[in-house]
Design brief:
It is found in: Cell membrane. It comes from Tepidiphilus thermophilus. It catalyses: fluoride(in) = fluoride(out). This protein has 133 residues and is mainly α. The chain is 82% helix and 0% strand. The longest helix has 32 residues. The two termini are 25 Å apart.
């Protein structure tokens, strides 16, 4: 998938988004029943997305020749379809509506802090692997 024109880039984004959304859906289906008050599928989607975007940042900076189509497929498409800020916001809001302030703060810390740590981890792992190569 080369950089291509607008249509090629739009297709790259759409394909990535479809795959990301399907993964997000399956994470919810398979994990959310474990702890419905703080759905682990939503958290897993955000942590995986954070890791993938961190790895992508490192890979794209190390290999600037990666075509725009692939960059858009992975970042705007896949990570955009996988991660779920709106669902996270709705879940935290529901906790607040039910007076579950402590659990809402835990969810906030896990999603935001965890995603940032996952991003840093993805970035560091790609950098480390490139250094070993």
């Amino acid at each position: 998938m080369s950089g291509g024109g607008v249509v090629t880039q739009a297709v790259a984004i759409a394909l990535g988004a479809a795959l990301g959304a399907l993964l997000r859906w399956q994470l919810g289906v398979r994990l959310n029943a474990w702890f419905p008050e703080l759905p682990p599928g939503t958290l897993a989607a955000n942590l995986i997305g954070g890791f993938v975007i961190g790895a992508a940042i490192a890979a794209f900076s190390a290999c600037p020749g990666i075509p725009a189509g692939w960059r858009l497929f992975l970042t705007t498409g896949f990570c955009g379809g996988l991660t779920t800020f709106s669902t996270f916001s709705a879940e935290v809001f529901a906790l607040l509506q039910h007076g579950r302030l402590a659990l809402a703060l835990v969810a906030l810390a896990l999603h935001v802090g965890g995603s940032l740590l996952a991003t840093a981890g993805g970035f560091a792992i790609v950098r480390m692997l490139r250094a070993l190569a």
